[in-house]
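Reopening this one. Same input as before:
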Amino acid sequence: GGLVAVPSFPAGASGTDFNDLHQACGADAVQVAIDTVLAWPVPEPISVALERQRYPIEVLPPVIRDAVEEVQSFVQAPLPMIATSAFGALSLCVQGLTDIRRADTLTGPTSLFTLTIAESGERKSTVDKYFTSGIREYEDEQRKALYPQVKARKTEIDVWKTKRSGLLEKIKSKTKQGNPTDEFESQLVELEKEEPRPIKVPHLIRTDETPEHLAMALRDEWPSAGIVSSEAGVVFGSHAMNPESIMRTLSLFNILWDGGEFQVGRVSRESFRLKDVRLSVSLQIQPGALKEFLDKHGALARGNGFLARFLITWPESTQGSRLMTDPPTGWPSLSAFKLKVRELLDTPPQFTQEGGIKPFLLYLNPKASQVWRECHDAIELQLGPGEPLNEIKDAASKVADNVARMATLIHVFQYGPNGAVGPENVTAAFQIISWHINETRRFLGEFSLPPEFSNAALLDDWLCRRCRSEGTRDIANREVLQYGPNPVRRKRELDEALKLLEELHRVRLVKIGKRQLIQPNPGLLSSASEESPLLSDSR
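Same output, byte for byte:
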């Protein structure tokens, strides 16, 4: 059979045939359109990496699954991102109620740390609002209901401070006069025992907190919280991540994930020990911002286990295919999810005498424990030299822990914060966490490449998505410099990435008049080739 050449008109030009193209753009444009259909070499992979796996939506509890699919039908964001957002909200509701004992000597929180890698515009903030709206409503109601108590307690605290200051003044005065102070000292000791504590008002959702403020808020305001941000570049690029602070910042997050104790040392204020608190983290970051962070601090972030604790989601973009649609009438599935969330929020948490959280300890039943051990061993056998998980042993070592956490979240969502976790929930959790560990392998595979390769991969993926969404075969250089991935918005980096892509037969560079155009290999634009440029091997 013959090859068919089809004219491709740039933005601002229109027509139906080659005569129109010639009049609009000149003879060079016609020649380019004809050259486009000439045989292209098979595109070579930028690197050998993993295929993107289908998210195991079917293993989610029906109420969560239906809510995820309902939100996806309207928002049309990537489904894995939506499911991850749902579990992020669930983690925030459950972590203050229960811990999980996964083995005789292994007990820990049910908190999750999640990280979605996506370009701006993937609608994570919109998705988060759907799944956290019930939590925000609960916070508002509690704030209003407790306001009279908060105000009254503040007065009590002010009075107590005044009495304390008065006694200290009397002790100071008597000391100067050389008189005994025993009476006032005794009164001060008794007063200290009566110190009124501030009323704790639930404040669960936080955004871009400094580590010191986060620690103080967990101690003084509410001992269970979640950092929810669709602009995690602010978090990863914050002052807390500078060379002087990053080690302490990462250690704080690691210890909070573990449910341990952290010493908060301060120059201008009294130091304190943070304990009996819980933290969930749900972040989205753009690939370029994450790459910049890893270029600066990647060795440390991996070396101390910070990145290993995150469940990573790196979904394929849906931008360019999100056609207008009507919202579901009444949002029945999301409403059912919010109702379950509210039941959990209305379950009063237990507190320690110092005001920390005291979660109820759940267990795996005997069959669930056996399944969990099998999951643990299945991962362990893949950590050796030459095995699939050898290069991400840091993240893989957290799989069993995250499986126990996820299984507990599923159990509590279905049955409440009591009873023993069953084997079916451990099995479902293992499938979900296995999907995330595959995402971690894909992510670390690309982001551990030299800059010129990772930049080329980002550019290649962006070019293909752009061409498919706009129905075109070529993209102008200036369009990449203006709208492309951040790492290639400078001419030097763009030229280096294009040179590599051209050598790998993934693009051609053509010139029409003064316009420099980039043509992706047509084989990459077909419906069967919509994966990332790295996803060329299905190991």
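So the earlier flakiness isn't reproducible anymore. For the record, The chain has 19 helices and 13 strands.
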